[in-house]
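Agenda item 2: nicotinamide-adenine-dinucleotide complex prediction
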Amino acid sequence: MNILITGGAGFIGSNFILYMLKKYPASTAGKPDYKIINLDLLTYAGNLENLEEVEDNPNYKFVKGNITDEKLVTEIIKDNKIDLIVNFAAESHVDRSILGPDAFINTNILGTYNLLKCAKNSGDIRFHHISTDEVFGSLGPDDPGFDEMTSYSPRSPYSASKAASDHLVSSFFHTYGLPTTISNCSNNYGPYHFPEKVIPLFITNLLENKKIPLYGDGMNVRDWLYVEDHCRAIDLIIHRGKIGETYCIGGNCEKTNKELTYAILELMGKGEEMIEFVKDRAGHDRRYAIDFSKIKNELGWKPEVSFEDGLKMTIEWYKNNESWWKKIKSGEYQKYYKENYEKR
Ligand code: NAD
Ligand code: DAU
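Presented output:
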């Protein structure tokens, strides 16, 4: 199978490539090879260091480019006889979407549209779209979790752009019969997570003995999933998911940001004096939770890594990979962070 993975140099995309190349090694006797082409623009969030260990794998190839580029995407599909596109590429950070939505509209909406168009024009290539639970909006304290029947109610430019991309994917299935699937997942964490997101930001700040900025009252709730569990779910959907369907993926692991913060502080041997309460995020969604019964019943998936183990492994990874995150934190990102966050 020849797979075009977009956004494969980012957090989840790179974990997925590593997962796939390990699970389906090159030339296993009698089994078809899985060839992966990674198309990534290498924005601030893309990092080829994530993929150093597979650079020389004969079943892996990197192409630098934009998912909005019709000529390039068409060529890649043709030259590599692509059977399946898995679309991870996106602008992914809610705070950045509040500061400047343009890139979110371009990549998340126009980029997804371009990939769909190229998939359709190149002979109805199978298309899996990676999306988020944020498209469903915000839950009240006693509401049941989001599922595949929940109506869309995005509230940030990021989630609105992802909602638009989901609708485009569905429209290509219903209108043109393009063989699509969509997955809407809750918050991921694990290795290679860019240190602007709360878990890697807090871990790396604490490793540097810096304060950790908790938004608002710290009582917003997120449903945490270890990234490898997400990769396993995607692997199942691309092989056995029903065409035209959506799958909700979650961790069954709701935590307030305060609970998360105290768990990190405890594992890192730090005290609560490291917390700095800062101004809240505009339009901050209060609670996300996922009911993942469908993927559990249809494909036999459930999360396997507990929050305690996942968080410990993640902290260990950041302790052992200081040069990875220090390079990021001391580069261009530092200027952005100073300008936009430290004055909050
Ligand atoms: P990320 O920001 O870490 O990585 C995004 C990648 O996309 C980067 O490598 C970047 O260079 C690339 N990219 C951006 N614009 C591009 C363009 N125009 N053309 C080609 N490449 C481009 O994001 P992530 O956290 O790994 O998220 C991946 C996907 O999963 C996104 O679609 C996101 O919406 C979705 N998602 C993320 C989470 C999460 O918790 N991180 C949860 C659910 C869904
Ligand atoms: O739910 C899935 C989504 O999870 C994905 O679609 C997004 O791509 C991904 O970035 C993530 O979005 P969140 O906004 O939930 O993640 P973030 O890590 O930015 O924030 C998690 C929570 O922590 C949120 O309630 C805001 C809070 N927070 C965040 C940061 C960066 C803080 O309190 N302090 C911070 O410094």
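Discussion summary: The mean pLDDT is 96.
Owner for follow-up: CH.
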